[in-house]
Amino acid sequence: MTKSDRLIYLPLGGAGEIGMNAYVYGYGKPGKERLILVDIGVTFPDMDSSPGVNLIVPDIAWLETNKKRLDAIFITHAHEDHVGGLGHLWRRLGAPVYARAFTAHHARRKMEDAGQSPDEVTTVSPYPETVKAGPFTVSFLPISHSIPESSGLVIDSPAGRVIHTGDFKLDETPVLGEPFDEALWREVSKGGVKALVCDSTNVFSEHEGRSEASVKPEITKLVAGAKGMVVATTFASNIARLKTLAEAGQAAGRDVCLLGRAMQRMVAAGEATGIIGKFPATIPVEEARDLPRNKLMLIVTGSQGERRAASAQLSRGKYLGMTMKDGDMFLFSSKTIPGNERGVIRIMNAYSEMGVDIVDDSAGRYHVSGHANRPDLLRMHDIVNPEMVIPMHGEHRHLRQHTRLAIEKGRAGALLVNGMMADISGPAPDVVEYIETGRTYLDGSVQIGAMDGIVRDRIRMALNGHVTATVIMDEDDEPLGDAWVEVMGLAELGKSNAPLVEVVEGDLGQILMRMNDKTLRDDDKMEEAIRREVRRSVMDEIGKKPEVTVVISRLIG
Amino acid sequence: MTKSDRLIYLPLGGAGEIGMNAYVYGYGKPGKERLILVDIGVTFPDMDSSPGVNLIVPDIAWLETNKKRLDAIFITHAHEDHVGGLGHLWRRLGAPVYARAFTAHHARRKMEDAGQSPDEVTTVSPYPETVKAGPFTVSFLPISHSIPESSGLVIDSPAGRVIHTGDFKLDETPVLGEPFDEALWREVSKGGVKALVCDSTNVFSEHEGRSEASVKPEITKLVAGAKGMVVATTFASNIARLKTLAEAGQAAGRDVCLLGRAMQRMVAAGEATGIIGKFPATIPVEEARDLPRNKLMLIVTGSQGERRAASAQLSRGKYLGMTMKDGDMFLFSSKTIPGNERGVIRIMNAYSEMGVDIVDDSAGRYHVSGHANRPDLLRMHDIVNPEMVIPMHGEHRHLRQHTRLAIEKGRAGALLVNGMMADISGPAPDVVEYIETGRTYLDGSVQIGAMDGIVRDRIRMALNGHVTATVIMDEDDEPLGDAWVEVMGLAELGKSNAPLVEVVEGDLGQILMRMNDKTLRDDDKMEEAIRREVRRSVMDEIGKKPEVTVVISRLIG
């Protein structure tokens, strides 16, 4: 480490939000640091702010501009908010991708789905195996989470060691995959750690987290007591939970059937990579249809109320020949993520109408979180005992609370959100630059900026409706015939009790008649006058100010 | 009661949903019953299902058709989901309105706001005072809830007594307003009650409800320990809570200022009707601006994250000259209603960015519910000891669970949702007819049906974007010039890397050229062909299928 070299940290996504994780580390002379990227995730759209959008990824424009300096991409685990952006964004970055086997399996699929070579993804064994990437030496340190083979990263640079936790919990009995190995983490940390960059999502949960193993007896008891068909949902990627659910079904003498593509894909990935161990035998849906209901358990996708997932489809009627009936049980072995309540409640009520008993996790019996709670975070700080704590993955309020926790315990810490580039070479983070970041929308088959105004226009049409007004101008710049109005998303009748379009056409006829020659020759002026009159007229009739498209066609003499 | 007379119950809103309460009772010969309506509430729109809609009220078409049989409207309490529809719908019903003083105060405002006479609302004293309405004699029976003067209704008919609880909790120390008077409810019930029509919203809450008085010590302690400005939010209508908050501020030596119109309106209503008692003196915002922050407490509207309420405005910056700063505290003395999480979280993070400490009710210390929990519901069943229990006000799952509870305890009960007319003259409810019900949207200044397709079109534009395609046809039914395309809410560039509108116009030019004379003379066929080609072309370019408005203008020779 020469005097002018520095170690930098730059979150591009995930710091100031839950989801869309993307963290850059760099080492070298200012502005010339060699870079690595940790995770490249997605976040999900909603009707309120991003209607019609397929997926949301971080704006990586800065990284793309500096792609020549990017030596590698590391993926901590296979959740969508960590690996989901790989297929969509890799082409713009072009760096080699490293992950452990199960994660790499998913990363390769993402690459293939986007028409890129899966060979860009290299499988790495966990610590002590290392990957050299420019000035960095990186190692995958196993940690427990709600998906197999999650890892923290040990990132060594000439400026010292950084530990990036990835998403994690401290689970010593995780049902499947590696238990949290405190001794190993202490071993890795004992030479001194410059910075602990640490998951923050559960910082507001005051009690120590519970182990995945703790839900098994409860689920087993519940399934054993069921009379009709049992259907359970959880995140497909939580293979430990799938195993617990399947084993509970098996113990109750039921055949188990997995429904939903994500579910089958995950179990296949688990089998392909050998991490799944002894998973109960499952039957195909064709067989399930013929079984007595009390001999059957379905494990289905859609714990968050997703409209196209198996749980929602079953709630609307038949799905792959299966239906829910009076006396069946539906178990949400999951927590509803804030923002998804409406969809989940819709499904619950649909099942209620069918006479299905719904068991959710309001009492915390059938689900545990995959993230470290407040006491667990403090325990992690103590185990690693870093020079500084940098909270990541969380909304602003999570990062702030986590930073405060660290500082209260006498550690250096800093609240760094997306776009804040910090020099972490010294004893505490020092913000050296603000990078423009944001969200990129995957909309249909194209990528658009969240601030481009395109989705804003869609929101406006949803709120205000739309009017098309057409006028044809003759060779003498006089209106030819009447203006023509079409509406979409607006009431047909207003206060005049005449069709809205006729009223607006009448009003447009009036202002066209009064327009002076100068305006009639000027498309922009005419358009503005027509738009204003349409809005005024519609407002007067039905109390709404619509979005307006004006088409002026001029016949040329 | 002659042999052919019957007593009927018909929910038009609130049974199968939370909000929008409207329950009809009738007595008389089948099809000729004299009717009364209990409550006429609203529910609130959301972006997912009703973007741009102002408010949602029950579809009262059936009641309007039978308005000659309607003798009275009774309002149980002044919450919007019970009285909010009065102004919008009264004209279509025209029956006299009865309520207790505080509720009547609000009901009159609703009437005035809609340009109707407040004199249609009559103030009624509580039990034992009665109102005669056709064959019914109705009395307001005080009960505790989260707004003053809430009442159950004692509805007497020749077929017996019905008790309609309204929204309620069993609170013997409600801080403000009448404590739950078990002796009175026993007294009213002792002659025998045919049906208990009972609030169901909290049936999934397993523990006995807590009293409003229980939050006072916690809130007082919290405010006493605060260093900077304290800002607290709750439902404006929860005057007891406002009082608790204001008293906590006063006890901590702070001046109290109410921000937000709903807040001021509620306190004014409380003062006008004398129910508020000794409320701490408040100061106007002009004075508040000049006070030291540690001497000030604001109580503000917007506990549900409403964008225009005081809490959201403060989170975006200055509101009426007030701003939040590092070291201030913001207290949510409220629960987030499912579906409102995103808005509330947005505010929390905005405050976090300002350095404000956010205290929410995740631990249940600073808020209690206004509704009866499961054990309280069972206690109410026992107190009233009715022949049958009819659960109302709840989603399907709540009504189902509540019905089951009653049946498990050996009572008759029935799950009746909106539109199910039940004869309750006999020992158990007997569904005799299905009435068409639904939701009416207040959209701008007009009322539209939820199923009219108008809002569905708006949702489609939000998801898919919009294209206008214009073609002018000459006197010989040949296209005059090129087709003209305008887009809204769609990416400007697609896979051809040329402007989307140009690509689509080019494609339209191609199909117009290939169109046969028959199609060119037929507006419907042409429109369909153009719409299909626009969708195909846009799909090909950017992967989206837009909504399309086609305008074909024909010049007449």
Automatic annotation (TrEMBL), chains A, B:
Q: Which SMART domains match?
A: Lactamase_B (SM00849)
Per the record, the domain of life is Bacteria
Among its keywords, does the record have Secreted?
Answer: no
Print the keywords alphabetically.
Answer: Exonuclease, Hydrolase, Metal-binding, Nuclease, RNA-binding, Zinc
Q: Which residues form the Metallo-beta-lactamase domain?
A: 19-219
**PANTHER family annotated for this entry?**
RIBONUCLEASE J
- Please give the name of this protein: Ribonuclease J
Organism ancestry: Bacteria, Pseudomonadati, Pseudomonadota, Alphaproteobacteria, Rhodobacterales
